[in-house]
Amino acid sequence: MLLPKRTKFRKQHRGRRDGKATRGNTIAFGDFGLVAMESEWITSRQIEAARIAMTRHIKRGGKVWIRIFPDKPITKKPLETRMGKGKGPVEGWVAVIKPGRVMFEMNGVTEDVAKEAMRLAAHKLPIKCKFASKADMDDVHLSHHEEEEVGAE
């Protein structure tokens, strides 16, 4: 499972999950990607379960990139403990996911195989996801740039 090797600060605040992903929102390595549609914390166990589901389906063909990393520590107080007495110990690690984030990428397989593998992986995750291909993403980004150029003239 994924977790940081060393951390400088042991405990973190919970933070907020509003807004869209500004980083990691394009397909950079593979031809196909799994894009988050909702905001959520995804645990290292869920990431690993999704990875296993994908790699089992593609049967050692192709390559899979995991574009998210659980670097946020989550603390939990023991059961039946009274309030107060400080923050609890670190229980696990999560990745903060925002809408538009590319979580997994895949290359070296056909679109049908990639789509099915990503579908199986999406079932392991607690959020709505969509399948995207690099061609679709490029078309979307091209249309945005064309609009900007037209608006500038």
Write a brief caption for the model:
With 153 residues, the protein is of the alpha+beta class. Helices cover 31% and strands 24% of the residues.
The biggest beta sheet is recorded as: 4 strands, antiparallel
* Strand line-up across the major sheet: 3-6-1-7
Structural class: alpha+beta
Give the termini separation: 52 Å
Which stretches are low in confidence, meaning pLDDT under 50 for 5 or more residues running? none
- The number of strands is 7
- Global mean pLDDT: 89
What is the string of SSEs from the N terminus onward? Answer: EEHEEEEHEH
User: How many distinct helices?
Assistant: 3
Strand content: 15-25%
Helix coverage percent:
25-40%
What is the radius of gyration? 18 Å
| CA-based shape | elongated
